[in-house]
């Protein structure tokens, strides 16, 4: 006899990821980069990358050369671009593993050129298309492009791409993207003037891909869309994960029972409670509306009382569940279980924060 329960588990679903890639590809003639930063928005970089590539993604993207090396170690040979690189660009690793790097300032390029690498580092020039975040400001473009051109001619780097990012695509309104598209047109003209041939130009993320073909250029970079999130809210994509937890305790309680810290919920009738071993340390938002529920055996049950660090309590009405019964905290949609979009609404946030916030002690599995 074993006492084992199935612990809280986040299951990644490759089929919806593939379907979402096919959906995005049906909207564009450009090639598609699958963005798997932040461990593929919490879903696991390698399995998401594998599913996306099998469905037609021809590039991968992430925010650190180290993450890209891990993707190579998982056996993927697809071209990979990294940007941001919070530990700095590791030129040797990027050259050794054929990892393209985005360079967003003259400083970043100079630092890269100070390093020795076994081969020319593949570079995408990252220009600010209008959000004053990463990306080279327009007044420095000429310097960056001239310096990159010289290093390219010397064989130190191989400039392959031109990257921008849309500030307002989530509005789903092409007019909001027009200034960024115009800036990219100026950047493309500047690199051609500097003597580069046609570079691979890319600007759009999920929202631009789904709502504005004028932003697609040569490649689109889809991250949120892989895991079922269209930030513009225009396209219903399929969720790509399921979060489950076992009932660890279940009991009958009388009317007037105070639940959890500070008794913030008091029962108004006789009922049953189930305890689930997941809390804010696992990414359950602490601030949630009273509508929040989970699904158990096809029924929906409200979360009552405060979310604790490690546990939540659900009111299961007349039902008393056996220890070990599986509760679904969120699923991909199409059932009575809540979705990440429900959790986003209940917590006043966006679905991205739900999936990227799932804690490290939640077990991961692949369907
Ligand atoms: C995160 C990111 C993406 C992907 O954005 P989604 O809206 O999640 O598709 C694309 N490009 C850059 C530069 C990013 O940082």
From TrEMBL:
Binding site for substrate: 133, 309
EC number: 5.1.1.1
Domain Alanine racemase C-terminal per the UniProt entry, residue ranges: 240-367
Membrane-spanning ranges: none
Modified residues (N6-(pyridoxal phosphate)lysine): 37
GO cellular component: cytosol
Keyword Isomerase included in the entry's annotation: yes
Catalytic center residues: 37 (proton acceptor), 261 (proton acceptor)
Catalytic activity: L-alanine = D-alanine
Enzyme type, top EC level: isomerase
GO BP terms, alphabetized: D-alanine biosynthetic process; peptidoglycan biosynthetic process
Cofactor: pyridoxal 5'-phosphate
Keyword tags: Isomerase, Pyridoxal phosphate
Free-text function comment from the UniProt entry: Catalyzes the interconversion of L-alanine and D-alanine. May also act on other amino acids.
Name of the molecule in the record: Alanine racemase
Higher taxonomy: Bacteria, Bacillati, Actinomycetota, Actinomycetes, Micrococcales
């Amino acid at each position: 006899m074993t006492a084992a329960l199935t612990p809280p588990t986040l299951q990644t679903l490759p089929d919806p990821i593939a379907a979402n890639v096919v959906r995005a590809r049906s909207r564009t003639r450009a090639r598609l980069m699958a963005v798997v930063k932040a461990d593929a928005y919490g879903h696991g970089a390698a399995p998401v990358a594998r599913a996306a590539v099998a469905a037609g993604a021809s590039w991968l993207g992430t925010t650190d050369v180290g993450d890209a090396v891990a993707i190579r170690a998982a056996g993927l040979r697809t071209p990979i671009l990294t940007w941001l690189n919070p530990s700095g660009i590791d030129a040797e690793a990027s050259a050794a593993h054929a990892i393209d790097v985005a360079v967003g300032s003259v400083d970043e390029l100079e630092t890269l050129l100070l390093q020795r690498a076994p081969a020319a580092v593949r570079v995408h020039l990252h220009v600010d298309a209008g959000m004053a975040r990463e990306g080279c400001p327009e007044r420095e473009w000429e310097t960056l492009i001239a310096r990159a051109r010289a290093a390219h001619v010397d064989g130190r780097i191989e400039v392959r791409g031109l990257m921008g990012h849309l500030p307002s695509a989530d509005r789903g309104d092409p007019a909001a993207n027009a200034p960024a598209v115009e800036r990219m047109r100026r950047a493309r003209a500047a690199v051609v003037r500097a003597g580069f041939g046609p570079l691979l130009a890319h600007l759009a993320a999920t929202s631009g891909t789904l709502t504005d073909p004028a932003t697609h250029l040569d490649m689109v970079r889809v991250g949120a869309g892989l895991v079922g999130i269209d930030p513009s809210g225009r396209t219903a994509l399929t969720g790509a994960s399921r979060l489950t937890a076992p009932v660890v305790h279940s009991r009958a309680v009388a009317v007037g029972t105070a639940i959890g810290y500070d008794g913030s919920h008091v029962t108004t009738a006789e009922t049953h409670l189930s305890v689930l071993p997941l809390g804010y340390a696992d990414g359950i938002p602490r601030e949630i509306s009273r509508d929040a529920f989970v699904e158990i055996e096809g029924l929906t049950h409200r979360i009552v009382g405060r979310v604790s660090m490690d546990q939540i309590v659900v009111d299961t009405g007349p039902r008393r569940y056996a220890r070990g019964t599986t509760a679904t905290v969120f699923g991909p949609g199409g059932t009575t279980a809540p979705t990440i979009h429900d959790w986003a609404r209940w917590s006043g946030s966006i679905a991205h924060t739900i999936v990227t916030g799932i804690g490290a002690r939640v077990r991961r599995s692949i369907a």
